[in-house]
Amino acid sequence: MSTQPLRTELIQSYAFVARNFSLMRRYWAWEVVWVAYSIATSMSVTFIAAGSSEITGQQIDVKHFTLYLLIGTIVWRFLSIMFTFVSEVIQIERWEGTIEYTLMAPVSRWVHLIGQTLFAILYSLFLTLIMGVVMTLFFELDLSNSNLFGALLVLLSGSVSLIGIGIFASILPLLYPERGAQMTHIIQASFLLVSGVYYPISVLPQWMQTLAQISPVTYVLDGMRAAVMDGAPTTELMPYIVPLFIFGVIATPLGIWGFKEAEMYAKRTGRLKRVG
């Protein structure tokens, strides 16, 4: 069987990755601002741990608290950036004025979305790496007992699970050109609220705790903290990794299918336009 069609589709996916990197170079000043903003906001949250004893007047394990907040901050930044790039795939096309050309091009939709997703993961990893390096310069961290390989597996499994949700969310800007992009932020904010990014989910009302149990972000954070803070071996991380992977394997094809259906509807109803 010839592999030429698959090779062509892989090249087409890479073309979307290369295009997005070209956009980054074009708007490099904005990227610098965004990196600086991300680092500043992440450090602001993490410094809460440093001031916790002074605020409460109680003796607190500051290093443990710092690592708890640091993991939540960095993991959330990684997942939220990736989710944003995937969910705003249509909005980016509108900003660039290329939405008609992209969605009318003879390219499979899964090729387009996989290319966008791959870029989102690479960009998120790059930004997270920069943040991690900077944060280690300000905070004393002891990672000698951490299972960093297991933490990476949890993070990548979480990426797979968020991809499908991000693709589903990208339908909103497609169907609602005026406010669809803003609607995706509601989904993102909901994950931030219920998933225990900065606090354990046990402090939430019971109905929010129920939502937290079905949030993939909760599993990513719990798995990352178990690997980094407790040094849990990779075998003990499987209760986090396996559900995330299964969720992603199911949600991503469904997301691509839903996007294609929404795309056809948008074309029939004239919602496919440059200006939202």
Please describe what this structure looks like.
The protein is mainly α. The protein has one domain (4-269). Helix content is 78%, strand content 0%. The chain is built from 13 helices and no strands. Helix 1 (4-26) crosses helix 7 and helix 4 (62-87) packs antiparallel against helix 12 (216-228). The radius of gyration is 20 Å and the shape is globular. It starts with a helix and ends in a 7-residue tail after the last helix.
Observed structural traits:
276 residues; mainly alpha; 13 helices; 78% helix; 0% strand; globular
- How many strands, which pairing sense, and closed or not: the largest β-sheet? none
The secondary-structure class comes to mainly alpha
Mean model confidence by pLDDT: 84
Radius of gyration: 20 Å
SSE series: HHHHHHHHHHHHH
Number of helices: 13
What kind of assembly state do the chains in view correspond to? single chain
Tell me how many strands there are. Answer: 0
For the termini, the CA-CA separation is: 44 Å
How many discrete structural domains? 1
Given as residue ranges, the uncertain stretches (5+ residues, pLDDT < 50) are none
Strand content: under 5%
Helix content: over 70%
Overall shape: globular
